[in-house]
Design brief:
With 254 residues, the chain is of the alpha+beta class. It has a single domain, classed as 2-Layer Sandwich (Alpha-Beta Plaits). The chain has an 8-stranded antiparallel barrel with strand order 1-3-2-8-5-7-6-4, surrounded by 4 helices. The longest helix is centred in the N-terminal third of the chain and has 21 residues.
Length: 254
């Protein structure tokens, strides 16, 4: 049997101009990432990791080498909600992202290994998002990632979320950059919702340990509160709820 297409619908997480542009500009000028968040059987989900690394990674690598995508990765759940695995890939724009996805879907359809069907039995459902990268500590926005990533998924006031972007990328960014410079974290990024579910914004902090990324988050936002309490208050009112995940970064290809 042919595999279902869930494997190709992937992005964690894991993250540019200071202000959110118009949708047309976002499509043309900003890196876009396709993320698939999987619900998996915890008893057998390690097998999904093996299928990805031993079989499907080669396909992503081919598209990376061909320049069709600019980065991809595979993450596993460490702390958080019901999502158990996360796949992602990036392209320079949404148009390029969807073109690459269409090409990879054809490869999945043609694959007769049976591994797609096995993967779908392990991870039978998923949620898809397209994220538009707004800012990143990496000049290209898509550098290699370390062992762990903290993803903060925000629910925001749709009418005011552009203001949240301005605050995060124009005020908070300096504190995040300082944390990269002193080695507290290895990188950060900020992403806006384009297509997907209820989460409207995604903040990512990468580091070399679970305690490291969590302690870094606490220290960073404590520092922001000291330096820009008003901006933090406006941001918290605009993006009023969030869900945190810590991911093990199993595969990261810049």
């Amino acid at each position: 049997m042919k595999p279902r297409l869930s494997l190709i619908l992937g992005f964690g997480a894991l993250l540019t101009p200071l202000l959110l542009p118009s949708p047309a500009s976002a499509q043309e000028d900003q890196p876009a990432g396709f993320a698939t968040y999987y619900y998996c059987n915890q008893a057998t989900e390690a097998r999904a990791d093996t299928i990805m690394s031993d079989h499907y990674a080669a396909m992503y690598d081919r598209h990376l080498e061909a320049g069709n995508i600019t980065a991809w990765g595979w993450l596993s759940h460490r702390i958080g909600g019901k999502w158990r695995r996360l796949s992602y890939f990036f392209a320079p724009s949404r148009d390029a992202l969807l073109e690459a996805r269409a090409a990879m879907i054809e490869e999945f359809i043609a694959d007769d290994s049976g591994l797609g069907e096995e993967f779908d039995q392990i991870c039978p459902s998923h949620d898809d998002y397209i994220w538009t990268m707004q800012a990143s500590s990496d000049p290209d926005g898509l550098g290699a990632r370390p062992e762990f990533g903290l993803s903060m998924y925000f629910e925001c006031d749709f009418a005011r979320e552009d203001l949240a972007d301005e605050i995060y990328t124009g005020v908070f960014n300096g504190v995040f950059d300082d944390a990269v410079a002193d080695g507290t974290i290895t990188g950060w990024s900020w992403h806006a919702h384009d297509v997907g579910g209820k989460y409207r914004r995604l903040g990512v902090i990468d580091g070399t340990s679970v305690n490291g990324v969590l302690n870094a988050r606490d220290a960073i936002f404590e520092r922001i509160g000291e330096m820009a309490e008003g901006a933090l208050g406006v941001f918290s009112e605009t993006c009023y709820s969030h869900t945190d995940y810590v991911w093990d970064i199993e595969i990261s290809r810049p």
